[in-house]
């Protein structure tokens, strides 16, 4: 309980006594373009060269064979959901539950999950912060963890190199409207509501979280016991990774991002629930929808985005090269057979025309040359270097 209250106070605590720390938004004069001007401590939001999110271009990815799968715990954690006024944040209660740690892949240290942020848009074409080749997704979940080997607190890690690791996963609209009844334990946690809520198997835990968010968003915080973070992750070892920043002020450039390439499915009804959420604004202020709570992609600049995804073009290229080599061999065999057939024809013509005059012999020779010439000089059309032009 003390941990929960501490988080609520921390959320509302101004930076150096200034209320400007809470006056940023995702639109208008307090939107992302102006974050760096609202507070001097947020200067990186404007001038930083390693900002997040980014647009990921598959053609610019660098395959790194040394990247291993990210390893995670399977511990369930006690948590609580908070409407911060900017987004929905699920804080992990580290005091009352076993921690959820993750490491491996591009991470050289152990990181402990601290909170999860939910970003979404007003329509299916908006919502995620990271994009793939200019394409956004309806939803993005971001799991933030701090380096427990070098730092004791999230706040200290947030300000330091190698301090934060963030796992991003996309959510897409589930076109399957058929619900599967499941009265068994769904493995997601969340209390007694889990067994009564019908969800599709691919997005079971995410659907349940959204249901909990929508059913109690008006409260300051809502408990979510025994949350299974592992069950939220997509079933894939493939990801993209790069060095970036926090996507909200103060935009510290201390984050190693891991972006899974396989999205999870979310039912349309759950997306509608999110889009009807209102911001937790000051008392007396008119209610406003929370939708479109995402920062647009920032330039990649000189950064390298690595991946452990095997390049498919490599296999395709090898197969095409092998096929072209086989075709070349077949063509050369055909050419040799045709040359042998032409030699036999020439011998027969010579035997039949021994008694002809010299002019006829010349004509026959010309005709023989013309017949060979009609086939073309096949040997000149096959160039060994062509097999690599794939």
Automatic annotation (TrEMBL):
Pfam families the record matches: Carb_anhydrase
Transmembrane segments annotated in the record for this chain: 314-333
Disordered: annotated segments: 175-196, 344-378
UniProt keyword annotations, A-Z: Membrane, Transmembrane, Transmembrane helix
Gene3D superfamilies: Alpha carbonic anhydrase
Annotated Acidic residues bias: 175-187, 344-372
Keyword Transmembrane helix among UniProt keywords: yes
An example Gene Ontology biological process: one-carbon metabolic process
SUPFAM superfamilies xref list: Carbonic anhydrase
GO MF annotation terms: carbonate dehydratase activity; zinc ion binding
Keyword Phosphoprotein: no
Segments forming domain Alpha-carbonic anhydrase: 22-309
Family (UniProt): Belongs to the alpha-carbonic anhydrase family.
Record's protein name: Carbonic anhydrase-related protein 10
Protein's organism: Plakobranchus ocellatus
Classification lineage: Eukaryota, Metazoa, Spiralia, Lophotrochozoa, Mollusca
């Amino acid at each position: 309980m003390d941990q929960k209250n501490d988080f609520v106070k921390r959320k509302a605590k101004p930076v150096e006594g200034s209320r400007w720390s809470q006056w940023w938004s995702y639109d208008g004069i307090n939107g992302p373009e102006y974050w760096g001007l609202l507070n001097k401590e947020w200067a990186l939001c404007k001038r930083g060269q390693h900002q997040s999110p980014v647009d990921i271009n598959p053609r610019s990815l660098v395959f790194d064979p040394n990247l291993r799968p990210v390893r995670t715990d399977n511990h369930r954690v006690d948590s609580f959901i908070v409407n911060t006024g900017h987004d929905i944040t699920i804080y992990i209660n580290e005091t009352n539950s076993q921690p959820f740690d993750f490491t491996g892949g591009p991470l050289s240290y152990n990181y402990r999950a601290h909170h999860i942020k939910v970003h979404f848009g007003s329509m299916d074409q908006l919502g995620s912060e990271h994009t793939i080749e200019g394409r956004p997704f309806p939803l993005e979940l971001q799991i933030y963890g701090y380096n427990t080997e070098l730092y004791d607190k999230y706040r200290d890690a947030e300000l330091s190199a190698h301090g934060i690791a963030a796992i991003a996963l996309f959510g897409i609209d589930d076109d399957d409207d058929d619900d599967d009844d499941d009265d068994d334990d769904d493995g997601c946690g969340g209390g007694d509501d889990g067994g009564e809520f019908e969800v599709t198997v691919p997005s079971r835990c995410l659907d349940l979280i959204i249901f909990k968010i929508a059913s109690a968003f008006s409260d300051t915080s809502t408990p979510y016991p025994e949350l299974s973070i592992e069950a939220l992750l997509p079933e894939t070892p493939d990801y993209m990774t790069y060095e970036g920043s926090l996507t909200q002020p103060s935009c510290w450039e201390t984050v190693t991002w891991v972006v899974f390439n396989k999205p999870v499915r979310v039912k349309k009804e759950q997306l509608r629930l999110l889009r009807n959420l209102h911001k937790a604004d000051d008392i007396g202020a008119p209610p406003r929808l929370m939708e479109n709570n995402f920062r647009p992609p920032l330039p990649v600049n000189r950064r390298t985005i690595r991946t452990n995804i095997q390049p498919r073009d490599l296999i395709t290229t090898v197969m095409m090269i092998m096929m072209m080599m086989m075709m070349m061999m077949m063509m050369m065999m055909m050419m040799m057979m045709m040359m042998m057939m032409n030699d036999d024809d020439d011998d027969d013509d010579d035997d039949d025309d021994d008694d002809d005059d010299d002019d006829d012999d010349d004509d026959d020779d010309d005709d023989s040359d013309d017949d060979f010439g009609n086939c073309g000089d096949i040997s000149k059309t096959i160039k060994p270097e062509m097999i690599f032009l794939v």
